[in-house]
Write a structure and sequence with these properties.
With 144 residues, this protein is an all-beta fold. It is built from no helices and ten strands.
Length: 144
């Protein structure tokens, strides 16, 4: 990947951002030396030609181009539940668990359920006063 790197080349580390190649030593175990300007101070790091920082690294950290990992890549996706799925819900204090029917997840990822044993069929005109938002939930076990 970096066998043809030259002094002065710009490279990008997924941890440190942009840096400049300041040394290429073909006979070293970590032949590529890169200088980064980190928070007003400079630091030099050494890499293998495959872009890995250490032999133990599974993936490379050094690249020719930068990239951005979208924030949603770090957020666990919400499960796909059907409306009216039976759930058990409770708040942070973990007391007073209640049986409810699933309605949807809100924009903050919290579960929203119908109140008072209502379902989508019996829910009163999509009136938001008849929905509750809960901190915690689990699927109710289906009866056989």
């Amino acid at each position: 990947m970096f066998q043809n790197a030259k002094i002065g080349d710009s490279v990008w580390d997924s941890r440190h951002g942009w840096g400049k190649v300041v040394g290429v030593f073909r006979s070293n175990l970590l032949p590529l030396k890169v200088l980064f300007g980190l928070d007003g101070e400079t630091k030099q790091r050494s890499y293998r030609f495959d872009g890995r920082f250490k032999d133990t690294d599974v993936s490379p950290r050094l690249f020719w181009n930068s990239f951005i990992i979208p924030v949603k890549a770090f957020i666990k996706p919400l499960p796909k539940l059907k409306v009216d799925t039976k759930v058990i819900v409770w708040n942070k204090d973990k007391t007073n668990k209640r049986n409810r029917y699933f309605s949807h997840f809100n924009q903050n990822g919290k579960i929203v359920c119908f109140q008072y044993g209502a379902t989508s069929w019996s829910h009163y005109n999509n009136n938001k006063d008849y929905w509750d938002t809960w901190d915690n939930w689990e699927l109710a076990e289906e009866e056989s």
